[in-house]
Amino acid sequence: MPHRPDPADRCPCTSGDSFGACCGPVIASGVAPTAERLMRSRFTAFAIGDADHILASWHPSTRPAELEPDPGIRWTRLDVLGTAAGGPFDSEGVVTFEAFYRHDGERGSMRERSRFRRDGGRWYYLDGAVGRLET
Fold first, then answer.
1. Model confidence over 26-82: pLDDT tens digits?
2. Looking at residue 134, what DSSP letter applies?
3. DSSP label of 1
């Protein structure tokens, strides 16, 4: 069961905003105004263990049948490195980010260039090219 932060708590996506004003509404509704906001909500879902949001926000053409987040990984920070398109009037977008974590006492990071597609007015994660960077 995911641990939902209090709406007044800082959002796990490290946007600087509260959970209630940032990823909370996207996770609750499944609707994000931009590809970046959806990507941030997916990071937050990984951080709080919300596999349902991760799967629901994944495009049906590439979505896995199931997903079991690794409980041994604690996601600690997200840095958005760049975006291309992905706005309210676009049908596709790209978000490049680096996500930081701790696993078995070790620090690490993962960099991804994620592609998003908007279908029926709703953004979905399509796929991503991943590279791992140790810190």
1. 999 999 999 999 999 999 999 999 999 999 999 999 999 999 888 899 999 999 999
2. -
3. -
Q: Which SS3 state, helix, strand or coil, does residue 56 take?
A: helix
Rounded to whole angstroms, how far apart are CA atoms 48 and 25? 15
Using DSSP, state whether 42 is helix, strand or coil.
helix
Please state, in angstroms and rounded to a whole number, the distance separating the CA atoms of residues 18 and 30.
18
Whether the CB-CB separation of 103 and 129 falls below 8 Å is answered with: no
**Pairwise CA distance, residues 25 & 10, whole Å:** 14
Residue 5 and residue 50 in contact, taking contact as beta carbons nearer than 8 Å: no
pTM: 0.93
d(CA 114, CA 95): 5
Q: Which residues of 96-127 are buried (b: 16+ CB within 10 A; e: fewer)?
A: bbbbbbeeeeeeebbbbbbbbbbeeeebbbbe
DSSP state letters, 18-74 = BGGGTHHHHHHHS--SSHHHHHHHHHHHHHHT-HHHHHHTB-TTT--S-----TTEE
Closest to 95 (Cα-Cα) out of 77, 70, 113, 73 = 113
